[in-house]
Each structure stands twice: as C-alpha cells, then as structure tokens.
Amino acid sequence: MEEPHVLTVIIFAGLLFFFYVIFTMCRRYVVPHRKRLPPEAGGAWPVIGHLHLLNASEPIHITLAKMADAYGPIFTFRFGMKKTLIVSNWEIAKELFTTNDRIFASRPKLLASKLLAYDYAMIGFSLYNPHWRYVRKIATLGLLTNHRVEQLEHIRAVEVQTWMKELHELYWLKNNKKSEKVVVDMKKWFQDITLNTIFKMVIGKRFTTAFDDDEASKKCRKALRDFSELFGKFIPSDWFPFVSWLDFGGHGEEMMKTAQILDETFHNFLQQHRKKRDYSKGNMDQEQDFMDLMISTVEDDEGEPLSYDVDTIIKAICVNVILGGFDTTSIVMTWALSLLLNNKETLRKVQVELDEQIGRERQVKESDIKNLSYLQAIVKETLRLHPAAPLLLPHESLEDCTTAGYHIPKGTRLIVNVQKLQKDPCFWEDPCEFRPERFLTSHKNIDVRGHNAQLIPFGNGRRKCPAISLALQIIYLTLANFLHGFKTDRLSEELFDMEESGGLTSARKTPLEVVLTPRLATSIY
C-alpha cells in the first residue's frame, strides 16, 4: 500500500481538528441538559474517537466483542465524529427489534451504499421508506416465499447432482494420474455450487454458462467478491462528513469501477431477457426466472409510484439477491465442513444418520431433509458459532427512543454483534464449544429464523434477511449430498486454523483443502 502524501495528511489532520473544535463548542451550547446515555468505551481520542483501537490484523467484530467484555453489552463507540451504539446482548437486541423495530428500521447513508448499491436502491441497503417496502415485497413474492422456494426445487436438485458428478470426476481424474491423495479446495467448490444455483434461479443460466467468454466471467466473479470486501473498508467520509469531497485511499473510485462492472453485466442480462420476452410473447408455457418476473412486475405495476427508473430497480434487486445468497451461503457451508473435520466424532455421527435415512443406493433429495435432524443441528450450531455476517448491517434510528433504560438520540447508528450475542454463557452451556447435540436436547425448539432472539444469524425484525428459507435449503441439500457422497479428511493430524477474515462477511482466512474419497458406488454420482 502506498504511503499517503505528507502534505495531504497534515491538511486532513488540520481539518479534523478545526471541525472537532467547532463541533465541541456547538454541543456545549446546544445541549442544555443531559439524559442518561449508554456508557461510552474508554480510550477515545479527540476527533478520531476510538478508531485507533481498531486492529488491522483483527476483524472488527472480535475487537468489539473484547470491548463488550470490558464495557458491557451496550456501549457507544465513536467512529470518528459518528457515535455508534454497539449491542452484544440478546435481551437488548430483542427490545431493539420488537419495541423499537420501526425506529431502527433504516440504514445510514454510507458511501458504499450509494456507489455500490445503486444509490440506496438495493433492498438490504435502502433507507426505510416506500421504495424499500415495495422492492422487498416484489422480491419476496418473486423468489423468496416458501411456495416459490418449493417450485424451484428442481433447479437445486439438478445443480447439486451436476456438482457431485464434477467432484467425482475430478477425483478419478486426479487419482488415475497419480497414486497420491486427492486434495480439493472446498472453499472454491462451495462458492461454485452456490453461484451456479442462484444464477440459474435469477437469470435462468448457470454462472459457468452465462457469459460469452472467460474474461467476462472472471470480471464478474471478482466484482461480486470485491463488493463484500469494499463494504468492510473504512471510508473517512462516512465518519467525517466534512471530508466527503475527498477520496482518501481511492476506495470511492474502486467502488465505482466495481459497480460499473456489475451494472454492465446485469444490463446485458436484462436486455437478453427483454428480447426473449418479446420473441416469446403470449407463450406462457415457458418457465420464468426471477428476472423475468421482475420485468413483468415492475413494468406492469402502474399503480406504484417508483423512486427509481424501472431498469435500476430490476438490476438492483437481482444483484442484491445474488450477492446476498452467493457469499453468505458458501461461507456457512465452508465453516460447517471445517468444524466437522475438527470434530471427527460429529462427522461420523452425521454420516451414520445419512446412511440410516438414505442408504447408499441413491443421493439425498430435499424431501429427505426433514428426517436429517442431526444435519440440521450441525447447520444451526455452525450459524451460531460462525454467522456469515458476524455484525448485522448497520441500522440508524429515525427518532429518539429508550432502550435498556438508556436514551438513544435520533440518527444514532446501531451495530449488533451477532457472533458475541450468540455465545452468551447465561443461555448457552459451553458457548464456544461445537456441540450440535444441544439442538436435539436442551435447545431443540430454538430456530434461526428470528423467532428466538438468542440465535439471529439472519438478523431480526423487519430488516432481517428475507431469503432464509432459500439459503437453508441450498445449505442442507448441498452439505447432505457432499457428506453422504464423500469421505473427507484433513491433510494432516493438525486441526484446521479457524481464523476469520474481516469485511462485510466473515469467511475462513485460508483455503479449506481436504482429502476426498467417494463413499458410494460410481453409478450413483
């Protein structure tokens, strides 16, 4: 990384100090009396707040979890000049997402949300307004209801079968060339199955066949990956509004390039769909993918005043659905396999369950999942220990309110540390241990859909993820078939390193290289 120009740093520091003095003086005269506010973490510096406490080598959710141990389950953290409420307790989070749910239903106006999310048009990053209600409704009806998820079962089944066959062929290809262990990076393979499945549902084509050339495919995959990484970057203008005209670090320019790649890619898909629609007009027998449904819904919805043009709404929804499912779903499966390979007895038990319920004469179907209670418990425990998004997307209060007895002013940003919340020792016995059995005994009635505040990996309240059912079906079916179809092992006796990466999502920092051996007859794959 290039060193910042000395003069630029001096000017920036001077501006910060000047506006800090003005801000402090204004507060002294404008605020006549103080209400009971949440405690503020210690160690704040003038102007920059607590930013110096963030460790570049440690994900922010881990830093905030350590601070919660010192300052309590609710405290404020100053990112520059913006005070943010940090919550890591399920009882407080429950109050926020029930009693104060509407008040905290909006999102802050971040640069990434503006540049990457079509000027706040995406569902997940939109402000709380009529546009958000409209796009959430049509996206849910078009792809995410339980009925629609069931209708698309055949796509998931075909994609998993194809994926299993490719893995099996890779095994024999490598095994026939050398009499060595067949090593596969499952992190990449889980990304491939997720991306192909979601692309097929959204635009009607697998990711591997959706592009005219490999270069376009690589650019799109990189842009999807960069999207999550860029949202995790520290952007000075988000926390120091008076420097919004400066692009320190060049992140703004990088965001615009990434957004342009995604926009051009999905603009091409949209044009292809419109041509197909015009060509097959009147033919209702042809199966419609999600983009087809969005075109029909948005273009034909004359009674809804739109905040954006039709193309922007369609592209924003489709990109959001793919981004929301691709990264998080593959991350959960990667963590699940990592935990299983570090806990061989649990791996043995789930494969026994698969053999007893499925046998070894066929692959797993979605209709089998309801009988695989131990597999479901493993997924729940994975989501508890390693939620794909350990920090919920930031919320922002629309008005003053009271939470946990504290006064929360309008405009306060809120970050809920889900990973910390889900390890509460007062609720979970041995909270840091991987123990799926807890979901078959003491916590068998706890689910991950937001009904239980102690386990909210998909968020809670009106801004929780609307794609929970779809994500779980992909995870269950893929993991079940993989564990049923292959014997897996670590490369060595040493346990996997479980270090997490930073960013909007928290993936394994290193690849997940495993040794594969088929468990079923060749004809089954």
Give me the secondary-structure topology.
Layout: H1 6-30, H2 60-71, E1 74-79, E2 82-87, H3 90-96, H4 111-115, H5 130-144, H6 146-151, H7 153-177, E3 183-185, H8 186-203, H9 214-231, H10 236-239, H11 251-279, H12 290-300, H13 310-342, H14 344-358, H15 373-385, E4 395-396, E5 401-403, E6 406-408, E7 413-416, H16 418-421, H17 468-485, E8 486-489, E9 513-518
Parallel strand pairs: 2-7
Antiparallel strand pairs: 1-2, 3-9, 4-7, 5-6, 8-9
Structural summary, described in words:
By secondary structure, the protein is of the alpha+beta class. It has helices at 6-30, 60-71, 90-96, 111-115, 130-144, 146-151, 153-177, 186-203, 214-231, 236-239, 251-279, 290-300, 310-342, 344-358, 373-385, 418-421, 468-485; strands at residues 74-79, 82-87, 183-185, 395-396, 401-403, 406-408, 413-416, 486-489, 513-518. It has a domain at 120-385 and 469-524: Cytochrome p450. It is built from 17 helices and nine strands. The strands form three sheets. It has a four-stranded mixed sheet with strand order 1-2-7-4. Strands 3-9-8 form a three-stranded antiparallel sheet. Strands 5-6 form a two-stranded antiparallel sheet. Strand 5 (401-403) and strand 6 form a beta hairpin. It is globular, with a radius of gyration of 24 Å. The two termini are 47 Å apart. The model is unreliable at 1-9 and 28-32 (pLDDT under 50).
